[in-house]
């Protein structure tokens, strides 16, 4: 916004470094706070951690809203990031834990749907306020963030506690009441309670809980979850969302209003796609969604990079091809990685390490998110094609990792996911190949 630039810069423009810092400051503190979120939610509950995060985020948004200097704006963004780091991990764990097995994917996609509605709303709110000639144009969006955060902080404690958390802390009678409030049938609740009692570990301090993440049988799941959460951002999605106006302007839509409209359309597409996935989240496999989605978004990014590198973007057809491919990327991401990555990171862990592992994965997500947010404008200033080749390569690498190391967990209860990790996909493929070789005749082996 020109009003924002004029308020914080005497020259009326902000350097790529300042722009990247303004966007990414929130992510630095979020990554630190997300590490604390898991152990904290194990102690004070998921809902109270969400509420605490909402209070902190509201305070940060209020500071940003009242900013008169860049220093104050950075402080506000940093405080808001700490709040976001607290509540986002707790929300993910809470949503996974309260869902019955048959609806876990659908409930997880509902959380993502609300996120995307917020993103799309942000685009159009900014599009509406950009025409206000005063600083209200950029203060109003920050003020709205503060109001919404207060609503979250007040509403979260009114939700029932996670029954799995209640059992984990020994409050079994309250867990039964919570299951009833959530509408989970008694048979499913009883089975879950029994499995959780077998899985429950002795109370330990934070350091002991952290070491649990890297014990035999758990370390691969932790590494996989952290890798997937990091690569979700390395796909370039936040480079597209944060800097959509810049990307569309680079592709030929130079007017501010056209750029904001194009960004808003991206947000609407994400909302529509997420609504569509609601009906299939528990029918499509987690592994197949990661593999198909990775292939689509990786290929789209590589093609965009190729268009820029070959200078085909100098022609109108090339520029519009880039716009179309960005939308292909957005659709591919919204129907796959956006939905299942956080669900996978949380559901593959046993109860005793779920919150801590989800927090660690979210921390990796924030760190990569910050790197992308800070470096994207600098990278684009030096190379139009480089960022797209990098994002595409990361997505395709993740696809290969999912093929080799990610078992299918759709339809398995949270307490039965151990069975899915008993034999990894790459070992199954190797065993199948060895078996096929053994049953071949000598003549067939000679031919091979």
TrEMBL record:
Classification via SUPFAM superfamilies: MFS general substrate transporter (SSF103473)
Entry-linked InterPro entries: MFS_dom, MFS_sugar_transport-like, MFS_Sugar_Transporters, MFS_trans_sf, Sugar/inositol_transpt, Sugar_transporter_CS
Assigned GO CC terms: membrane
Topology of the protein relative to the lipid bilayer: Multi-pass membrane protein
Keywords linked to the UniProt accession: Membrane, Transmembrane, Transmembrane helix, Transport
Alphabetized Pfam families for the sequence: Sugar_tr
Reactions catalysed, as given in the entry: myo-inositol(out) + H(+)(out) = myo-inositol(in) + H(+)(in)
Gene Ontology terms, MF aspect: carbohydrate:proton symporter activity
Bilayer-crossing regions: 20-40, 52-74, 80-99, 111-130, 142-159, 223-244, 256-281, 293-311, 317-340
Record's keyword annotation contains Transcription: no
Keyword Hydrolase set for record: no
Localization per Swiss-Prot or TrEMBL: Membrane
Residues annotated as domain Major facilitator superfamily (MFS) profile: 1-410
Family (UniProt): Belongs to the major facilitator superfamily. Sugar transporter (TC 2.A.1.1) family.
NCBIfam families, per the entry: SP (TIGR00879)
Name assigned to this protein: General substrate transporter
Organism: Wolfiporia cocos (strain MD-104)
């Amino acid at each position: 916004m020109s009003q924002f630039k004029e308020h914080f810069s005497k020259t009326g423009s902000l350097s790529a470094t300042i722009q990247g810092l303004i966007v990414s400051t929130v992510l630095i503190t979020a990554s630190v706070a997300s590490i604390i979120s898991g152990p904290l939610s194990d102690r004070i509950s998921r809902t109270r951690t969400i509420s605490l995060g909402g209070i902190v985020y509201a305070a940060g948004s209020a500071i940003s809203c009242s900013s008169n200097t860049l220093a104050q704006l950075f402080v506000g963004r940093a405080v808001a990031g700490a709040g976001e780091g607290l509540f986002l991990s707790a929300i993910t764990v809470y949503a996974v834990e309260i869902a019955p097995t048959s609806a876990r994917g659908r409930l997880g996609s509902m959380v993502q749907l609300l996120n995307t509605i917020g993103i799309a709303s942000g685009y159009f709110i900014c599009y509406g306020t950009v025409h206000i000639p005063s600083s209200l144009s950029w203060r109003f969006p920050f003020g709205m963030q503060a109001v919404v955060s207060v609503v979250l902080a007040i509403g979260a404690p009114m939700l029932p506690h996670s029954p799995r958390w209640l059992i984990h802390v020994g409050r079994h009678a309250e867990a039964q009441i919570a299951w009833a409030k959530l509408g989970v049938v008694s048979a499913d609740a009883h089975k879950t309670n029994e499995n959780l009692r077998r899985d429950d570990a002795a109370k330990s301090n934070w350091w002991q809980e952290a070491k649990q993440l890297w014990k035999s049988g758990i370390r691969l799941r932790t590494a996989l979850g952290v890798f997937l959460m990091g690569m979700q951002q390395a796909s370039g999605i936040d480079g597209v969302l944060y800097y959509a106006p810049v990307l569309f302007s680079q592709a030929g839509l130079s007017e501010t209003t056209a750029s904001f409209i194009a960004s808003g359309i991206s947000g609407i597409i994400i909302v529509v796609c997420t609504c569509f996935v609601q009906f299939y989240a528990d029918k499509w496999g987690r592994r197949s969604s990661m593999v198909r989605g990775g292939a689509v978004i990786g290929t789209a990014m590589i093609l965009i990079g190729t268009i820029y590198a070959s200078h085909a973007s100098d022609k109108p057809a090339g520029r519009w091809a880039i716009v179309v491919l960005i939308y292909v990327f957005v659709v591919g991401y919204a129907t796959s990685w956006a939905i299942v990555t956080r669900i996978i990171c949380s559901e593959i862990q046993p109860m005793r390490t779920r919150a801590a592992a989800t927090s660690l994965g979210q921390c990796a997500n924030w760190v990569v998110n910050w790197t992308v947010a800070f470096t994207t404008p600098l990278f684009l200033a030096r190379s139009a094609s480089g960022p797209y080749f990098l994002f595409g390569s990361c997505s395709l690498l993740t696809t290969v990792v999912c093929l080799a190391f990610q078992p299918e967990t759709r339809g398995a209860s949270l307490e039965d996911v151990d069975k899915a990790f008993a034999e990894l996909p790459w070992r199954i493929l190797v065993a199948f190949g060895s078996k096929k070789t053994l049953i071949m005749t000598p003549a067939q082996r000679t031919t091979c």
